[in-house]
Amino acid sequence: MNMSSYCPMSSQDGGSSLVYASKNGHVEVVDKLLQHGATVDMHDEDGWSSLVYASQNGHVEVVDKLLQHGATVDLQSKDGASSLMAASQNGHVEVNGHVEVVDKLLQHGATVDLHDEVRSP
């Protein structure tokens, strides 16, 4: 079976297979894509990377896999959102993994005082 016929490498919004798999928490797919050379810091047209989406959605295993493959922890989207900001936004929901994601990002050197476009001084 040819995966590319079922999962396009990019779409009209600029998302990639890795971005979609990360956003939806499909750790096995993320692992396969990375093993086959997917760009770990690929992002959609808004600049949201796989790590930002996985962090926002509390996908701890995906975040861990992306970080193991060298994802840039402080990569910011066009509006300035970072993975730590995305995870912190939902950090009160412990059952969804956000607190654990925040912890992993901090362990990998995430900058705690980055600003997004809305909150910049």
UniProtKB/TrEMBL annotation:
Pfam families: Ank_2. Keywords: ANK repeat, Repeat. It comes from the Eukaryota. InterPro entries: Ankyrin-KH/SAM_domain, Ankyrin_rpt, Ankyrin_rpt-contain_sf. ANK repeats lie at residues 13-45, 46-78, 79-117. PANTHER family: ANKYRIN REPEAT AND KH DOMAIN-CONTAINING 1, MASK PROTEIN. This is Ankyrin repeat domain-containing protein 29. It comes from Geodia barretti (Barrett's horny sponge).
